[in-house]
Amino acid sequence: MRHIARILTAALFVAFTGSAIAAVAVKVGPRKGRILELENQQAEFFIEKDRTISIAFFDAAMKAQPAAAQVVTATAEVPTGKLKLEFEKKGELLVSKTPLPEGDNYTIVVQVKTSAEAKSKNFRVPFNMVICKECGNPEYACTCDH
Ligand SMILES: [Zn+2]
């Protein structure tokens, strides 16, 4: 019995801390883009001035890696519907072939596979380009606790 209670406590602890971390701890990369945690690697989600999305890849120790077998798609959930963006290799990065649709304040769902055979991982990024006064990052990559 005591063993089960301990497992339950551990599970609850993970559930609580897990959701707390997801809500506040945004990490940013060298371009001040939002870091997406992948298995054994990390990706930096960055919105360029022309509103295309570019993704840079790093190993677990944040050493830059050229885009290789990763497959990325993004879906902009605009009020009028969902718009899918596809990515292509541009130098070391993966860049969306089309820019984000007009406006902001919508969710971008980013789907990343580390290789064609890998399981995909989804990230929901709240898209807002307003610069946060506290950390100086656009709100989609804000690292503040608010
Ligand atoms: Zn901030």
Description:
Helix content is 16%, strand content 40%. The protein is α+β, with helices and mostly antiparallel strands. Strands 1, 2, 3, 4, 5, 6, 7, 8 and 9 form a nine-stranded antiparallel β-sheet that branches. A hairpin with a 2-residue loop joins strand 1 (34-38) and strand 2 (41-47). Zinc ion binds next to loops.
Low-confidence runs (pLDDT<50, min 5 residues)?
A: 14-22
Largest sheet: 9 strands, antiparallel
Order of helices and strands: HEEEEEEEEE
CATH class reads Mainly Beta
List bound small molecules: zinc ion
What oligomerization state is this entry in? Answer: single chain
Mean pLDDT: 88
Coarse structural class = alpha+beta
Gyration radius over CA: 17 Å
Overall tally of structural domains: 1
Indicate the proportion of strand residues: 35-45%
CATH architecture grouping: Sandwich
Portion of residues within helices:
10-25%
Number of strands: 9
CATH topological fold name: Immunoglobulin-like
What is the terminal separation in angstroms?
Answer: 40 Å
The number of distinct helices, counting runs of at least 4 residues, comes to: 1
Overview features:
40% strand, nine-stranded antiparallel beta sheet, single chain, binds zinc ion, alpha+beta, 1 helix, 146 residues, Immunoglobulin-like
